[in-house]
Design a protein that fits this description.
This protein has 214 residues and is α/β, with parallel strands linked by helices. Helices cover 33% and strands 25% of the residues. β1, α1 (11-27) and β2 form a beta-alpha-beta unit. α1 (11-27) packs across α7. It is elongated, with a radius of gyration of 18 Å. It starts with a strand and ends in an 11-residue tail after the last helix.
């Protein structure tokens, strides 16, 4: 029977898992790494119910039955196409961003709520003209010149490194976050899952690059 490792992550968390999955599959190519979309607020319950082996969160789980390992930090950056006037700037203010045509993710999240609250508190307009259900859709829309978008940097690393998108910092909105790999304290894991945990322990805290080599 083919082995399987099940990991829960929200859409942004998937990007943190890809280098780890690549390193794991070099050693265990026959094992299926099954990454399932689970909201952060549901992650602890799914882990304790054993619906998943592991999870990815941007905070340390409060449950005493769960442990976590650091996967590095991430932050929000403004993504613009290479020919955009802002592409020549390293950073801008919230007010400057508010004057842009903005593409947003329509899935509720703490990061989205925080940004909207900050704009409301400043009495500054945020010109959202397009709302999309996926990060890949948002990145594609930015590449097409439909607007700019504030997204976790890790989600757009490939596009940034290839020059398809340019990152611009908005210091007041960057909200650095510690990504964490979460697992059950009891240690009852399949051989395949235990091996995945060992890969995370070995590679998880390395600086993020496009690939992780074994």
């Amino acid at each position: 029977k083919k082995g399987r490792v099940v990991v829960g992550a929200n859409e942004a968390g998937v990007h943190a898992l890809l280098p780890l999955a690549a390193a794991y599959q070099k050693v265990y190519p026959a094992v299926l790494v099954d990454v399932r979309r689970i909201h952060s607020r549901q992650m602890a319950q799914e882990l304790l119910l054993r619906s998943v082996d592991f999870g990815v969160l941007t905070f340390a789980p409060p449950d005493r039955e769960l442990l976590s390992l650091p996967l590095g930090t991430d932050e929000l950056v403004l993504l613009v196409p290479p020919d955009h006037p802002l592409s020549r700037k390293k950073e801008i203010t919230m007010e400057e961003m508010g004057r842009q045509v903005v593409i947003a993710h329509n899935d509720p999240s703490p990061a989205r709520d925080r940004v909207l609250r900050l704009y409301e508190k400043r009495h500054t307009r945020l010109n959202i003209v397009l709302s999309l259900p996926s990060l890949d859709g948002i990145k594609r829309a930015v590449e097409m010149g439909l607007g700019v978008a504030l997204l976790p940097r890790r989600c757009a690393w490939s596009e940034i490194s290839r020059g398809q998108l340019i990152e611009v910092r908005v210091p007041e909105l960057r909200a650095p976050r510690q990504l964490r790999f979460v697992y059950r304290r009891d240690g009852e894991l399949s051989h395949a899952a235990q091996a995945f945990l060992e890969v995370v322990r070995r590679y998880g805290s390395r600086p993020f690059t496009r690939s992780t080599s074994a």
